[in-house]
Amino acid sequence: MKRIAIIGGGISGLSAAFTLEKHRRAGLELGYSLFESSPRLGGVLLTEHVDGCLVEGGPDSFLTEKPWAAGLCREIGLADQLIDSNDHDRKTYILVKNQLVPMPDGLMFMVPTKMLPAIWSPLFSTRTKFRIMQEWFHSPRESSADESVASFVERHYGAEVVDRLADPLLSGVYGGQASKLSLRAVLPRFAEMEASHGSLGRAMISARRKASTPTGRPLFTSLKNGMQQMVEALVAHLPASTLHLNTPVLAIQPQDKRWLVSAGYSSDEFDAVIVSTSAQAAARLGLPEKLANSLDAIEHTSSVTVTLAYDVSVRKALPPGFGFLVPRSEGKRLLAATFVHNKFPHRAPEDRALFRCFLGGARDPAILNQSDDEILHIVRQELRQVLNLTAEPLFTRLYRWKDAMAQYNVGHIERIQAIEKICRELPALALAGNAYHGIGVPDCIRSGADAANHILNTLGVAPPE
């Protein structure tokens, strides 16, 4: 019987364990042990229920267009628990000179696909509006070299679109900077669209016309009882004997085509290892120096999420929509704020307003050095400046996520290819998590499943027919 160690009990590690468990139940002779250093499983997927409100400490949903999260939910019996975001009211604002300016109609991510709304929008200066019109006449351009998202967007639309759209959008998703993030790793479709059409606007419209039928799908999907519901359902499918909480792995060492895993106060041998921690945590496991150095070179940023609840008077005074993004040029520490009661109305009673605020990332790593009270003061002060919100919150919740977001900086794809080449030279070893091929929840789920299947193939263990 082959034995496999899984290091890290976030959603990637749980996905790997679930994949192995499916094969074990189907008759494959294998055993596995999952080691988690903390007292809980699920990593950043953390949900609390407070005063009738559903509070998410980490991600509150996942992108609908990526199928792996919804697919897993259906496999583990949560099909009837999947819910859609309230896209009927999906409006997002950009803070410009301390005023909330709605994103113009027809803006797909950061690409204007409708000329008149972009031209009439106060979001852009006259100079930028001319750049948006000129962009429709860009000739196809293909390049084999990677570049930053900022340089790419600036070439198409100018620096103002980088500041007011690209940078705040990517800060919200990656906690990173458009000037450092890799176009080919973060927005590969943009590189393809430039090569085929030149103009991103024309490419977007062409793709929309070629779609056989409009999907009408919501942008985001979540679960009725929060994202932690997925974790709890996954754990229920795994034998309790395979899960080892409060058990940090101190080192893993290759030994005669096997691995010696030192966890807690004991060591044990395994035929294969799946490492589903952050890349920097993986680098500290005693892996061969070349691999450890390559993993350590993947930057990570930290973040803080703050949830605040208010009464119905605040809810009535807020603008409609999902929330707002804050460009770096505004000089604030808030990166973004979500109006949770609008995005997912069932997250709060009708007499409550529920905010989720985001801080930190590459823009503000120092925020983690401040106390909870100091962070709450900053959030309330900036909400007062932006929304004239002076009321006392009914309750607050604050969550810190240290080194939780991998940065896909320029050259990321080549770095990952080099890391995977080194892994192939070692006994059965696979890496999973948000540091490699996608940062969202669906990507992490896919990475865990792929890592498990890769290990089975490497060990020469064929799944039963």
Full CATH superfamily name of the largest domain: FAD/NAD(P)-binding domain
Q: Any idea what the shape is?
A: globular
Largest sheet: 7 strands, mixed
Q: Structural class, from secondary structure content?
A: alpha+beta
List unreliable stretches of 5+ residues: none
Descriptive tags:
3 domains; globular; single chain; Polyamine Oxidase, Chain A, domain 2; 36% helix; 7-stranded mixed β-sheet; FAD/NAD(P)-binding domain; alpha+beta; 465 residues; protoporphyrinogen ix oxidase, domain 3
Explain what this protein looks like in three dimensions.
This protein has 465 residues and is an alpha+beta fold. It folds into 3 domains: 2-39 and 230-299 and 408-458, FAD/NAD(P)-binding domain, CATH 3.50.50; 106-210, protoporphyrinogen ix oxidase, domain 3, CATH 1.10.3110.10; 300-406, Alpha-Beta Complex (Polyamine Oxidase, Chain A, domain 2). The protein is 36% helix and 24% strand. The protein is built from 17 helices and 22 strands. It has a 7-stranded mixed β-sheet. Strands 12-2-1-16-22 form a 5-stranded parallel β-sheet. Helix 2 crosses helix 17, helix 8 (188-197) packs across helix 9 (200-210) and helix 12 runs antiparallel to helix 16 (412-424). It is globular, with a radius of gyration of 23 Å. The protein starts with a strand and ends in a 7-residue tail after the last helix. The mean pLDDT is 94.
